[in-house]
Amino acid sequence: MKAAAKAHTNIALIKYWGKRDESLILPMNNSLSLTLDGFYTTTSVEFRDNLTADRFYLNDRLIEGVEYDRVTAFLDRIRTMAGKSDAFAEIHSTNYVPTAAGFASSASGFAALAAAAAKAIGLTVSEQKLSILTRQGSGSACRSIYGGFVEWEKGIKADGSDSYAVPIAPADHWDIRVAAVVLSSAEKKILSREGMKRTVHTSAFYPAWVDSIPDDLAALKDGIMKKDFEKVGGIAEANCLRMHATTLAANPPFSYWQSTTLLIIQAVQGLRESGIPVFFTIDAGPNVKVLYLPEHEETVRNELLNITGVHDVKVSKPGQGVSYI
Ligand code: DP6
Q1: N or C, which end of the chain is more exposed by having fewer CB within 10 Å?
Q2: Ligand 1 pocket residue status of 289, Cβ below 6 Å
Q3: What is the rounded distance in angstroms from the CA atom of residue 200 to the CA atom of residue 314?
């Protein structure tokens, strides 16, 4: 009753921002991401008869508190599905996701956990079912089941059975690069879960955000299929700015940006003015991810490393979906 899996993190080009159901993690809008090869989590799960509770180790450290509660609550769902309410597990997870780069390790973490735990408890699930299951751990994680470009369909059913990820184009469809710009000091005061909740309930701009998604999505998919980098980058950047605009109109208002965030945005705009197609996107934190084509790698990297407050630049290519190890 032991299994292990590996899953990569992903970066949303059209963001998931807001839930219509907090408990089942059902989103207000479709989102579309690119799975990244550079950042991943490996997780082994072993259900053992002699355990009376789950034990969760992250990077060799025994975890307690909120993080543990989230993992064990997720395993409860798997136990229920398998009809094995008293099967407890020892979980070992290793994150190869630099937390300082502002990537939600919860995306790769819950995708790897779902795959390993389902297999270890003896459930045979399709990738679609696995995506539905993973979604209930962390929304963005459901997209990490697949490699390359992936859409998460929000679905309309109350039970969430039609809310899952769908692959749009595989990792080898298009070699674009994503540089994660690591800031020297980055603090995230408001978690994405909390931030999106406040925004849904209080932001005057939230309805406009939801309304903007269908057109963005159709244009982005067309751009991906045609490998039109300017189109894809432009939509991703505008969508990110719109997401962040909703936080400014929340009550109380907030922003994930720090001064270095703005310096990076300006550097990206400067590069673009000099004729290099490069675009940014930002999740629920101050770090910036920069999208560009392989031929501009050196120029983009050097420019980013020159910015005051930038500590490192970690480059990623399109990555594969979840796999068993
Ligand atoms: C801004 O998936 O971390 O990165 O579902 O509450 O676990 P929960 O939230 P999470 O939110 C990610 C938000 C985002 C946008 C995105 O990845 O689509």
Answers
A1: C
A2: no
A3: 32
